[in-house]
Amino acid sequence: MTENDSPVTFLDTDKAWDLLAGERLGRLAVLTDSGVDIFPINYVVQGESLVFRTAEGTKLSAVTAHAEVTFEIDQWNQDAGYSVVARGRAIAISDPAEISQVEALGLRPWVPTFKTIFVRIIIHELTARKFSFGLDPIDKYR
Fold first, then answer.
1. pTM of the full predicted structure?
2. How far apart, in whole angstroms, are the C-alpha atoms of residue 20 and residue 73?
3. Which residues pair with 37 in a beta bridge?
4. Which residues of the chain have pLDDT under 50?
5. The pLDDT value given to residue 142
6. Measured distance CA(137)–CA(60) in Å, rounded
7. What is the C-alpha to C-alpha distance for residues 23 and 66, in angstroms, rounded to an integer?
8. First to last CA, the chain
9. For residue 16, which phi and psi values (nearest 5 degrees)?
10. How far apart are CA 115 and CA 134, in angstroms?
């Protein structure tokens, strides 16, 4: 990397979707009565949305009361990393035909619990960044 190169690269939307489709675990940020809460969820990409399973509880109550959510994944190795942030509207899936479609995606609970409710996040904003790792720039001046 030269001095003019930025260690942070903004990625296009197609690359962001590719990164989302290549992962299965991320973090869902929702607004609850006590503030923002973050939940790890496993998910699948379907079209331009994400689908996850849940049960009755805080997560479902939060997306029912405040449908606007933020979802994030990241990945890294010793040379580089990336972050994808999706903002969208979460909607519990109730249509039997749609439930049949998402059941066919093979999404299973991450832990052995009954999670019979499918939720779709319809994404309206998607951003992704790549981070090239290296030495701390301050080290050049020591």
1. 0.87
2. 7
3. 30
4. 1-3
5. 66
6. 44
7. 25
8. 20
9. -60, -45
10. 42
